[in-house]
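Onboarding guide, step 5: your first structure request.
Type a short instruction followed by the sequence, for example:

Predict the 3D structure of this protein.
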Amino acid sequence: MESKTFAKGIYAELPSEKAPSFVKLKLSFRVADAAAFLAEHENNAGYVNCDVKESKDGKIYVELNDFKPKKPESLEETNESSIPF
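The system replies with structure tokens like these:
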């Protein structure tokens, strides 16, 4: 089982029952902790991807999504004589 990396300084909660129906999630950021977490996990494109999940006991949490698609195996180098013109 892969270990989880929880987003430090980033917290998610379901909105209160009194919130309007268009409010889907409440996010809170502890700036110093979140900034350090974001800087540590920034990808080559300048992003940090996270997923908001629900634990088995119903608690909402934010987890780092560090998925990287597998690169296709390198293609065999083409032989110039096999390229039709």
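Each response can be followed by summary notes, for example: The first strand starts at residue 10 and ends at 13.
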